Amino acid sequence: MANPVVPVSNIYDSARRGNSSLEELRGIFLYRDLIFQLVRRDIVARYKRSVLGIAWTMLQPLGMMAVMTVVFSQLFRQVAGYPAYILSGLIAWTFFSQTTTAAIHQIVWGAALLNRIYMPRTAFAISAVGTGLVNLVISVVPLIVIVLFLQIPINASILFLPVSILLLTCFSLGVGLILSTMAVSFPDVTEMYQIVLLAWMYLTPLIYPQDIIPPAYRFWVFTFNPMYYLLKLFRMPIYDGILPDWQTLSIGTGISLATLFVGWVVFARKADEFAYHA
Amino acid sequence: MLKGLKMGMPEDRVILLQNVTVKYRAPEERIGTFKEYMIRALQRKVRYKEFLALDQINMDIQKGETLGIIGRNGAGKSTLLKVISRVLVPTEGRVWIKGRISPLLELGAGFHPELTGRENVFLNGTLLGHPMREVEDAMDAIIDFAEIGAFIEAPLRTYSSGMVARLGFAVATAWIPEILILDEVLSVGDEAFRQKCETRMETFHSGGTTSFVVSHSMDTVAALCSRVMWLDHGRMRSVGDPQTVIADYRAGAG
User: How far apart, in whole angstroms, are the C-alpha atoms of residue A127 and residue A39?
Assistant: First the structure.
């Protein structure tokens, strides 16, 4: 038995609590090792009993790419290097849809724990995004292989990719937090969200090139679609081989940070009520 | 300590509850889906019914006390424990706590069946708020206390239920807490292991740990506690010497 290293300020006073968002931020810092363990658990547990293990993270998007290429390549013949186009889109989209869905599942699973012990409640959404991030980084490897195989030139612009990933991460975390706040009171948010995701995916130029949408509709379909900008930011450095233009970058940054801020504040403010629901 | 002085708290006070009230606000009819909620909200048909789970609880607990909480099901015992373990913020009143809380509520909550015992110890230790370095330092002692041996490298799904409970107990009590919460958990494993658990509890107690014991067994409460609180419908019926309060409870509840 050992005496734990007790934090300096070890006093809890329900009457003197600071700003909920900042308290949550402080909690996450203190519990950073928990985030690591939760991410580790998700990755280890997912592949523990499979023969190919972590290789699935690379094979799965490649398989989907192969199927989509067979189905759509005749239709979208004007897209040069269609497999790379679809794969880059799929990787970014899968990251977004999986992490936001996982954030909901995590908070529903974690409700039993949240009812028993104290922990920063954003830990669940953050670890869901962390797990997605590990998968995303791994699946960039086959993307680079495909890009090289199709003889698409790789430029220095690829160095911008981490920034694109960071913005996508912020946006996904923000959406994940908003959804998990709702899911605590209404479990059917999960089902509803799957339908929204499907529609959203078809409204985003993921499978198809953006110019097949008639100019008259483009404004409505793309302007108010955050994923349109974030997908573009992800594709430009690696598929187009160019740095994103300022307009796309500033809109993408603005949307991501604003979503994260709103998600964090709403979640932190509502988090105290979670125990009342469960 | 400095902070305690600043707020005028006596040196050896560990927990202070002032007018702690928990009010659940439940919809009169259960609304389970978002769609249903939206429809009703639009029709302004969401009616709420208030329910007082805790009503004006006042309590001052000193370092080293073992406080028993008794009462019927639904009297507010679990709610009180939630308030103390920071899970639930009271609707009204104030909760002041000094020190690290270790809840022994449900042993092994958060364990994952596919992970090995060692991996689960890390997961559970960090869930309890310990950095990985502290878990690493305590690892040998945990494995030893849980009597797991070489099984520590095997997935948890291969464990017997007794092994899981022992490992959970070993992790939760690997560090000396300032405040310990025991909710009907002293019935883990076989007789020999129970003996070990009780020895560990005594070590904590002599080390100055403040404990909360919730049990339906009056013998357990009488044996362990220095003070007992009787909760009835969210109100504190009486508090004081174990024998007296238990006798009152038996008379009142019978």
Answer: 5
CA B164 to CA B193: how far, in whole Å?
A: 13
Query: What would the 3-class secondary structure string for B232-249 be?
Result: ECCEEEEEECHHHHHHHH
pLDDT digit string (tens) for chain A, length 278 residues = 555 444 434 788 887 788 889 989 999 999 999 999 999 999 988 877 777 778 888 888 888 888 988 888 888 888 888 999 999 999 999 999 999 999 999 988 888 788 888 889 999 999 999 999 999 999 999 999 999 999 888 888 999 999 999 999 999 999 999 999 998 888 889 899 999 999 999 999 988 888 888 888 888 888 889 999 999 999 999 999 999 999 999 999 999 999 999 999 999 998 888 877 75
Contact B175 A1 (CB under 8 A): yes
The two structure tokens encoding residue B147: 């009597």
Strand order in the sheet with B235-240: B101-104, B179-183, B210-214, B66-70, B227-232, B235-240
Range(s) of the domain holding residue B160: 3-7+64-253
Distances (CA, A) of B8 to B2, B3, B11, B210: 10, 9, 9, 21
Residue pair B58/B19 in contact by the 8 Å Cβ criterion: yes
Dihedral pair phi/psi, residue A175, rounded to 5°: -65, -40
Question: Is the complex ipTM more than 0.90?
Answer: no
Q: Is residue B99 included in any domain, yes or no?
A: yes
**In A, which residues are within 8 Å of B129 by CB distance?**
30-31, 34, 118-119
Residue B121 lies in a domain: yes
Q: Is residue B12 part of a domain?
A: no
Contact A12/B86, CB-based, under 8 Å? yes
Identity of the residue in A14, A116, A192 whose CB atom sits nearest the CB atom of B34:
A192
- Model pTM score: 0.87
Domain CATH number, residue B188: 3.40.50.300
Flag whether B28 is in a domain: no
Decide if A118 and B115 are in contact by the 8 Å CB cutoff.
no
Query: β-strands B92-98, B210-214: how paired?
Result: unpaired
Chain A: closest CA distance from residue B250 (Å): 29
Please give the structure tokens belonging to residue A154. Answer: 């790789």
Q: How many domains does chain B have?
A: 1
Least CA distance to A31: which residue of chain B?
A: B129
